[in-house]
Every structure is written in structure tokens, then in C-alpha cells.
Design brief:
heterodimer, A: 28% strand, B: three-stranded antiparallel β-sheet, 3 strands
């Protein structure tokens, strides 16, 4: 029987998936999120307490340091049943604890890179390689930036030959979408 | 010269986030993450004696919405929103769907559907 009870509360909730947009400060993470998102990038804040302090230990409460980390994120509704969220991850090394939370369950990550500051991408790349989170490197072609070929970047970053490197313009919707599609195709190409 | 009260931004919460949750950092029910989807089980108007922030969650989750979006709308840390959601879940005022599979990687058909969507939208 396929009758639909019209009085029933619809309890079928959409499936949500996420992709991380990582990279160092100022590389264009929020720009890319904004270029593809159907909503203006939103900001969620997470309060971090110095790790290593037991939650039951109230004696040291005053000594705890609280840091607020902001993440910008966007949304793409694929269908009624499927929503893709993009999270621009805070770039600083010391927030790697927060990354663990973000990376859990992520389909993969885009590491945005700037050829003028390639060295600053190493922390991100190391992190995803270690976690075995699939990623692609997308070189944001800033005006005036040196033009390198993807092969140059692959060599300079000492990437696994299987890791795709693309050139992109993070301001451009079509270009940024192409990066996301490249990441997803890369994920599908990996052995299960 | 501006009157002193005009210098006070009126949207700033006067209760610190941890106070809203009575100091709790873990939800009583459910395991939420930033992309857990939440839907209210009833309209917002009825007064159940909810705290203002919980009432706001009910208002903002009349359509399916993610924890991250709720946190942004309420301008609260995501962890605080998750604790409040745990209380609402225990009271059956919301239903939720954690990302599928909960801590693993999306299935192949889901990834294919996302590629298709990105290429055609």
C-alpha cells in the first residue's frame, strides 16, 4: 500500500553531508564558500577550553582560557533529501582539536593554496594525509600571483601523485563548483 | 551626544552561554554534530515554559535545519545549542537526524547524487 497519510508529521529529514574548505589565513576560504553557497556564509562560533583540563575539576576554573573560534559555512541544497554543507576551517595549527570534530564524517577537503605562500599549506596537507581524509589542492589564482602549473605545485608540495591539483578562482561559482566536483570524483576513484 | 543607553548594543546576550545550560557541556539525549538536522515537532506559539533560547530553537526549526545554522541564527556557540537540543529531544519537542552514517563517510550513491546536483543546479 502506498497511501500517504497527509495528517502525519513529515519525519523524513534530509541527509546532510559536508566538505571542508581548508587553507591558511587569507587564502580565500570564505570567498569560496560564498561563491557556491545558496545562502550568505553564516558564522558559527565554538568555544574552546584549554584541552587537558578535566571537566570535573572545578578548582582550576579561573585558570582556564577560553578561545572562541569562528567557522564560516555555507549550504547547497542538492535535493529535498540531500543537503551539502561547506565549512571553512580555521587555519591555525592549535585548533587541530576542532578540525578533528569537523573532519569526522566529512566526504573530503579542499586545501586552498596560494603560490606566493605555498609553505603555509603544509600544515593542512599533513593533517589530512595523516587522517587519511581525501583532499584536493586548489590553487587560488590571485591576480598578480605567480602562475605555476598544477605539476609544479604538486612537486613543490611533495604531494602523493594521486592527489589532484587544480587551478581555480575562489570568487567564481563555476570554478569553485568544478573544484568540489573534482574532489568528489577523486573520492569515488579511491579504493574502498 | 548620545544617551548612554544608546551605546548598549541590545542584541548582546546577558547570560553567558554556559549559564544557559547550567554549566553542562554534554547533551542529556542524542549525539549532535554541526550537520545534524533538526525539526521541531510542534509550532512555536504554545507556551511550554521554555527558556527563551529553547523557544527560539523551536521557532527556527519549523523546517529542517542544521545545528550549525541554528547556532549561527541564535548567535550561540554550537556546543551550547547541542546541550539545549538534547533537552528538547528528551522532551520530544524536536526530532533529529544525525549525519548518515553517523561517523563514517558518505556512501557512493550519496556522493554521486552530490556530483550530479553540483553539475546540473
Amino acid at each position: 500500500m502506498d497511501s500517504v497519510r497527509s495528517d502525519a508529521v513529515p519525519v523524513v529529514l534530509p541527509t546532510a553531508v559536508k566538505i571542508l574548505i581548508a587553507g591558511h589565513f587569507g587564502v580565500g576560504k570564505t570567498t569560496m564558500v560564498g561563491a557556491v553557497s545558496e545562502i550568505r556564509p553564516l558564522r558559527t562560533e565554538e568555544m574552546l577550553t584549554d584541552a587537558g583540563i578535566g571537566v570535573d575539576d572545578l578548582s582550576g576554573v579561573e585558570a582556564k582560557t577560553h578561545t572562541t573560534v569562528a567557522m564560516d559555512f555555507g549550504r547547497i541544497t542538492i535535493s529535498r533529501d540531500l543537503v551539502l554543507y561547506l565549512f571553512g576551517t580555521p587555519g591555525q595549527d592549535r585548533f587541530s582539536f576542532l578540525w578533528d570534530e569537523l573532519a569526522a564524517g566529512a566526504i573530503g577537503a579542499v586545501v586552498l593554496a596560494d603560490t606566493r605562500r605555498l609553505k603555509e599549506s603544509f600544515a593542512c596537507i599533513d593533517y589530512f594525509e595523516e587522517r587519511e581524509t581525501p583532499f584536493v589542492v586548489a590553487v587560488n589564482c590571485f591576480d598578480g600571483g605567480d602562475r605555476f602549473t598544477p605539476a609544479d605545485v604538486q612537486l613543490a608540495l611533495n604531494l602523493d601523485p594521486g592527489t589532484p591539483v587544480l587551478l581555480c578562482d575562489a570568487r567564481d561559482r563555476t570554478s569553485s563548483r568544478a573544484v568540489l566536483v573534482a574532489l568528489l570524483q577523486h573520492v569515488l576513484s579511491l579504493p574502498v | 551626544m548620545e544617551a548612554p543607553h544608546e551605546q548598549w548594543p541590545d542584541a548582546v546576550p546577558v547570560v553567558r552561554p554556559y549559564a544557559m545550560t547550567s554549566g553542562r557541556t554534554t547533551p542529556v539525549r542524542g549525539a549532535f554534530d554541526l550537520i545534524s538536522i533538526v525539526l521541531a515537532t510542534r509550532p512555536p506559539e504554545r507556551d511550554d515554559g521554555l527558556h527563551p533560547e529553547s523557544a527560539q530553537i523551536i521557532r527556527h526549526s519549523q523546517e529542517p535545519v542544521s545545528v550549525a545554522e541554528l547556532a549561527a541564527e541564535l548567535d550561540l556557540p554550537a556546543g551550547t545549542v547541542m546541550v539545549l537540543l538534547g533537552d528538547l529531544l528528551a522532551q520530544r519537542l524536536i526530532v533529529t537526524r544525525s549525519p548518515t552514517p553517523a561517523r563514517g563517510v558518505a556512501s557512493r550513491p550519496v556522493i554521486e547524487a552530490v556530483i550530479h546536483g553540483l553539475s546540473t543546479l
